[in-house]
Amino acid sequence: MKLDTGAAWTQAMKLLGAHREVLVALAGVFLLLPPLFVEIFAPFRPAGETFAVLAAEFRVYIEANGPLLLAMTVISTFGQAAILTIVLDRDQPTVAQALRGAIRLLPWLLLLNLLVGIVLAVASMALLIPALYLFGRLAVTGVVLVGEGRHSPVDAISRSWQVTRGNGWRSFFLIAVVAMVGWVISAAAGAIVGIAAKLLGGSAVALFFAAFVNALFGAALGLVLLLLYVAIYRQLVREG
């Protein structure tokens, strides 16, 4: 079955409409607050102009802020698990039930994300184009883990590979287009707010507002992409 990108986008928006209040609340707490906290208390401000210098600066940043970044990653992943539970569970769980379910899923989803990240990083160091295709094939791993109860990360990766067979590039390009549009909108809004912050003399309030806008658009994009992964999965397994 070929992925219908237009239908997948439409279904993602239907999912958002059907669970809007709950999803916005969960995204606000778990997808917005962690990056906002990092942006305020441990921002990454690179000064280098070459890749080697940037890489060195990033390594120093990670070493200095590793525990905080790890904690924020755990919180964000917990939120992703709760959001996927709300959308995928046919029993229509309450928020409390979804949060309890997310606690059980959290270790497996963290391990899965780590494993997928390593696979994609290794692939990208070898050849970029195959790595992009690989991303398309592995896009629904989290959905598989939560929706099908596959607590083995390797099993979830294998199942994602099966579900997306023949649709690796379609899946990648759909996700890439949505991510690019979201990034452009976020960058434009961030630039406007940044200019306003400078005009206000770089006050603490202005800087906080700039960080909040960046985190807000990032959380919105993160939520939309999660729903898009669900829509891709459901279409390819003929669930809707």
Based on Cα principal axes, name the global outline: globular
Tally of contiguous helical segments: 9
Low-confidence stretches: none
Strand content: under 5%
Number of strands: 0
Mean pLDDT: 91
Measure the end-to-end span.
13 Å
Main sheet summary: none
Name the helix and strand elements from N-terminus to C-terminus, one letter apiece: HHHHHHHHH
Structural class: mainly alpha
From the alpha carbons, calculate the radius of gyration and give it in angstroms: 19 Å
Report helical residue fraction. Answer: over 70%
Structure notes:
- 31% of the residues are buried.
- The protein is globular, with a radius of gyration of 19 Å.
- It contains nine helices and no strands.
- It has helices spanning 5-18, 20-41, 51-88, 95-126, 128-138, 141-147, 153-163, 168-199, 204-236.
- Helices cover 83% and strands 0% of the residues.
- By secondary structure, it is mostly helical.
What characteristics describe this protein?
240 residues, mainly alpha, 9 helices, 83% helix
Topology readout:
Elements: H1 5-18, H2 20-41, H3 51-88, H4 95-126, H5 128-138, H6 141-147, H7 153-163, H8 168-199, H9 204-236
Helix pairs in contact: 1-9, 2-3, 2-9, 3-4, 3-6, 3-9, 4-5, 4-6, 4-7, 5-8, 6-7, 8-9
